[in-house]
Specification:
This protein has 299 residues and is an alpha/beta fold. The protein has helices at 13-22, 34-43, 55-63, 80-98, 136-146, 169-179, 197-209, 227-238, 247-254, 258-261, 270-276, 285-290; strands at 2-6, 26-31, 46-49, 67-70, 104-110, 151-157, 159-161, 182-185, 191-196, 216-218, 222-226, 242-245. Strands 3-2-1-4-5-6-10 form a 7-stranded parallel β-sheet, sandwiched between helices. The protein has a 3-stranded mixed β-sheet with strand order 7-9-11. A two-stranded parallel sheet has the order 8-12. Helix 1 packs across helix 7. The longest helix is centred in the N-terminal third of the chain and has 19 residues, at 80-98.
């Protein structure tokens, strides 16, 4: 298939490219830069120029493809609500380009969307349409285009990691580096799910090759790692003290990340593993955090 991949030069997308190519697909990767186009061509993919700010530029690439995997997202957490709304507009534009066909369209969301109550283990068969996390906009947009006959499925992400980047954890490392304290909220028993980036890339490929319209897949290798354990490994890596903060103190310490740090987000991937035959094999997030070079600031 000719697969149009947004986020193709990003942390996850750049791992999806070789997965798709190895499976015999032709990859058309979205990029906004000459450097990104060269990277895609070196990897054996075709480049398509476009940006999230111009949904029509993305829709034109989707319209010429047999399938679309949408992983691109603006991770500027100081404008998180606006960025989720931008993602919804992109999903709707891609959906319009695919309308009237059975071409697979895989969108990206977060595992927290599958939890119906705070702290409840998120599962693939649930979707809280009133979830306080603005990322719900992505799945609501997916449902909107599905109602128009588009063949939509979703991959929900936990903290996706290797020994260089770790999802929401990467900003926490930089905050600890800047403040000289590796902090958590309360007793730090709240948990975050996680999966290694290579396992996540393989899941996207499986979700495409075994496409099920309406499915929501959980890229979960670890159901929940305590945030205190994460803070302790960061503290050891940076050589800074570990400290518990009250919710009020967390606001000033973590800035735009404060709403996320205290969240309890355990998630299951059991249904995904059974349905797709997905078996994560990568290292755990604490292992990758211990393997980091803390002398190098995140890019």
């Amino acid at each position: 298939m000719r697969v149009f991949l947004t986020g193709a030069t990003g942390f996850i997308g750049s791992r999806i490219v070789p997965e798709l190519l190895a499976a015999g697909h032709h990859v058309i990767g979205l990029t906004r830069s000459d450097a990104g186009a060269r990277a895609l061509e070196r990897a054996g993919a075709q480049a398509h120029r476009g940006t999230l700010e111009e949904p029509d530029s993305i829709a034109s690439g989707a319209g010429a493809a047999d399938a679309v995997i949408h992983t691109a997202f603006d991770h500027d957490f100081t404008h998180f609500v606006e960025n989720t709304q931008k993602d919804a507009r992109v999903i709707e534009a891609i959906g319009a380009a695919l309308a009237g066909s059975d071409r697979p369209f895989i969108i990206t969301s977060g595992t927290g969307m599958g939890s119906l109550e705070p702290g409840q283990i998120a599962v693939e068969t649930s979707f809280d349409r009133n979830n306080p996390n603005p990322r719900r906009a992505s799945e609501l947009a997916g449902e909107k285009v599905a109602a128009r006959g588009v063949s939509v499925a979703a991959v929900r992400l936990p903290q996706v990691h290797d020994a260089v980047k770790q999802g929401l954890i990467s900003p926490l490392i930089e905050i600890a580096r800047a403040t000289g304290v590796s902090a958590y909220v309360g007793d730090g028993a709240n948990r975050w799910p996680a999966a290694h980036v290579t396992d996540v890339a393989r899941l996207y490929r499986l979700a495409l090759d075994r496409h099920e319209p309406g499915a929501r897949w959980h890229a979960v290798a670890e159901e929940g790692v305590p945030v205190r354990a994460i803070a302790e490994v960061i503290g050891a890596g940076l050589g800074v003290p570990i400290r518990s903060l009250s919710p009020e103190e967390a606001t000033g310490h973590f800035g735009p990340m404060a709403p996320f740090v205290g969240m309890n987000l355990p998630a299951s991937g059991a249904w995904t593993r059974e349905r797709l035959g997905w078996s994560p094999t990568g290292p755990g997030v604490l292992e990758d955090l211990r393997a980091m070079d803390y002398g190098v600031a995140a890019g």
